[in-house]
Amino acid sequence: ESKVSEGGLNVTLTIRLLMHGKEVGSIIGKKGETVKKMREESGARINISEGNCPERIVTITGPTDAIFKAFAMIAYKFEEDITNSMSNSTATSKPPVTLRLVVPASQCGSLIGKGGSKIKEIRESTGAQVQVAGDMLPNSTERAVTISGTPDAIIQCVKQICVVMLESPPKGATIPYRPKPASTPVIFAGGQ
């Protein structure tokens, strides 16, 4: 069953992304057209958590190559949104695309590597910025991994992260992060 496809085992993997409401809206598109197209073209299952939450979880499941396709489409969609939002602003430098993965804390060690060696290697080989949150997400055993850069850098970075996650499966039970409904306003410190 597991045939080796380009640069990785062709196994089914699940990657979870943490997004703000308007990012989710951008991915869903008018009447769900964008996400439908992403599902069809990538072949990945893309699931979006219910939410009147400020944050939603987008779950992408499928063979690794389907996941990369879905990621590419999301990254390019976000880049397009940035470009569109800049067309009427005076900013000259284009901000990077930023995606936040949700990763079981037990896998973050492998992702960071001894003395940060692995994460440094990923940064250097992909050109993407990668940051693993020091603290777990509320009521979970997961941490946020923030990736930013050009869509191509992000896709390369996700590929490498997938390889690490496949090579070192999570240990013990993972308590998945579930965003809380917005009852009280959440103030994010430092624009994270």
Task: Please provide a brief summary of the model.
The chain is of the alpha+beta class. It is built from six helices and eight strands.
Task: Work out the radius of gyration.
Answer: 16 Å
Low-confidence stretches: 1-7
The main pleated sheet reads as: 6 strands, antiparallel
Q: What is the arithmetic mean of pLDDT?
A: 89
Protein name: Poly(RC)-binding protein 3
Organism: Chlamydotis macqueenii
Pfam families: KH_1
Domain K Homology: 11-79, 95-166
Give a structural overview.
The protein is α+β, with helices and mostly antiparallel strands. The protein has one domain: TATA-Binding Protein, CATH 3.30.310. It contains six helices and eight strands, in the order E-E-E-H-H-E-E-H-E-H-H-E-E-H. The protein has a six-stranded antiparallel β-sheet with strand order 4-5-3-6-8-7. A two-stranded antiparallel sheet has the order 1-2. The chain is globular and about 45 Å long. Residues 1-7 have low confidence and may be disordered. Residues 11-79, 95-166 form the K Homology domain. GO terms for molecular function: RNA binding. This is Poly(RC)-binding protein 3. Keywords: Repeat, RNA-binding.
Write the layout of secondary structure elements.
Layout: E1 4-5, E2 8-9, E3 12-20, H1 21-28, H2 33-42, E4 45-48, E5 55-63, H3 64-86, E6 97-104, H4 105-112, H5 117-126, E7 129-132, E8 142-149, H6 151-167
Antiparallel strand pairs: 1-2, 3-5, 3-6, 4-5, 6-8, 7-8
Helix pairs in contact: 2-3, 3-6, 5-6
